[in-house]
Amino acid sequence: MSQKKLSIYLHWPFCLSKCPYCDFMSIPTQNDDELFEKYAELLLLDLKNSLEKIDYDFQIETIFFGGGTPSLMSAKGIEKIQKFLQTKTNANAEISLEANPATFDSQKMRDFKNAGINRISLGIQSFSDTNLQFLGRIYDSHQAISSAEIVAKIFDNFSFDFIYGYECQTIKSFEKDLRTAINYDCKHISCYQLTFEEGTLFQKKLQAGIIKTISEEQEILFYKFIDDFLKPYGIFRYEISNYAKKGFECKHNLAYWNYCNYLGVGPAAHGRIKSGNYKYATEKIRNPFEWAKAIEEKQETYSVFSKLNEEEILQEILIMKLRLLKELDLCDLYEEVSKNVVEEMISYKKLEFLQSQGLIKLQNPKQIRLTESGILKLNSIVEFLCS
Ligand code: SF4
Fold first, then answer.
1. Which domain covers residue 13, as residue numbers?
2. Cα of 28 to ligand 1 centre, how many Å?
3. Ligand 1, atom 2, residue with closest C-alpha
4. How far is CA 73 from CA 11, 38, 41, 43, 256, in A?
5. Which tens digit of pLDDT belongs to each residue from 215-273?
6. How far apart are CA 234 and CA 248, in angstroms?
7. Does a structural domain hold residue 281?
8. CATH code of residue 227
9. Is the pTM of this model over 0.90?
10. Is 24 within a domain?
């Protein structure tokens, strides 16, 4: 039987402080070697148990240490996980780690590299003190610069992540941020628009009128600016918020967007795993302490393990694949969803309507892609198609 490709996501649940816009599962905590060692062991145990349940032969193509702030982990903890996965991992696998500028020095970055990490996703967010203060980040512009220098010196394959679209930010300061990234020969850049998620401090401040959103025109201005600025450097948008030089696209995230199988390990981690003829949506226990208790008591760590029906799969594929901003051939969906379900849900009439609104472009009755206006309305488009 041939080996299936698999991606692995490992969630590290701790950060040094909670950023006011963040709704990820992360608990603010001080550096605590004992706690972190314990959680690295638990992550390994959860990984072992979860892999045992996969009922087919697989080869790991990508591994992603995300969070939270996985750069708080010790390189030793990462190395143990890497060693355990080694025999099942493709020699050219992409092994990424998310890093926060306030959590490492050169030595630690070198140790991460020696432990098997070959790609860093550095959450810079901005190089400007005004912007960093607004975003509630715990480092200043000097630390942002020195962390970028360290990463660029030690790794070839790295990404700088930025947040854009907030009151105090100007196109000029954003341009400075992107230019600094280019000066470090950064070949992958993620630019996420600031969103105000339920339960975050920023959402409360927004409701109280303490902060404001930017206008839709400004949003579009920022979005277009990124594309225009990066293109001359050979860095192209390959997903709504992601830009890369050819060959430096994030393979792990591409696995999500192409709806491949991925195993999510660690508190709150999501996964999509095929077993037999079915695709399953999985989620681990959200609370890290309850998740840890479940492992210690040899209990199940999945809080969700549910079989997806064809309509749900179709909706997920559309949301993921349309993000890639290229032609989506509806015939390619028949591999995952039966032809009659695709045709029943995505009628030509609906597609024509979306085209008339300037939201999608129809190459032929079966090939669609988002337009610039459609990009900003992806969720509503998919909702309309699947209704
Ligand atoms: S460092 Fe990242 S994961 Fe942690 S609170 Fe801030 S945005 Fe969230």
1. 4-256
2. 9
3. 68
4. 11, 10, 11, 11, 24
5. 999 999 999 999 999 999 999 999 999 999 999 999 999 999 999 999 999 999 999 99
6. 11
7. no
8. 3.80.30.20
9. yes
10. yes
